[in-house]
Design a protein that fits this description.
With 78 residues, the protein is of the alpha+beta class. The chain has one domain. It has two helices and five strands; from the N terminus they run βββββαα. A hairpin with a 2-residue loop joins strand 4 and strand 5.
Length: 78
């Protein structure tokens, strides 16, 4: 499970078995989890996060979209 980014209370990562899915990241904070597609940024699933926090996470992903997408491609190109 490579961590792509840690920012504030969030850990953004992907699973090594995710390579056959479209580019996405998993977001964790405490016992909360979410999964977002990266292009375009769309919430795919969520457990525990409040609606406003999901909106805040979406904005965080938008600000870091290129880094996240590049990290995804670099990791799975190996």
């Amino acid at each position: 499970m490579p961590t792509i980014l840690r920012t504030g209370p969030y850990r953004l990562f992907c699973y090594s078995s995710d390579q056959h899915e479209p580019a996405h990241v998993h977001v964790e904070r405490d016992d909360k989890k979410a999964k977002y597609w990266l292009k375009p940024i769309i919430l795919q699933s969520s457990v525990g996060f409040a609606r406003q926090e999901l909106i805040d996470i979406s904005r965080l992903l938008e600000r870091n979209q290129e880094l996240l997408f590049k990290s995804w491609n670099d990791y799975f190109a190996r």
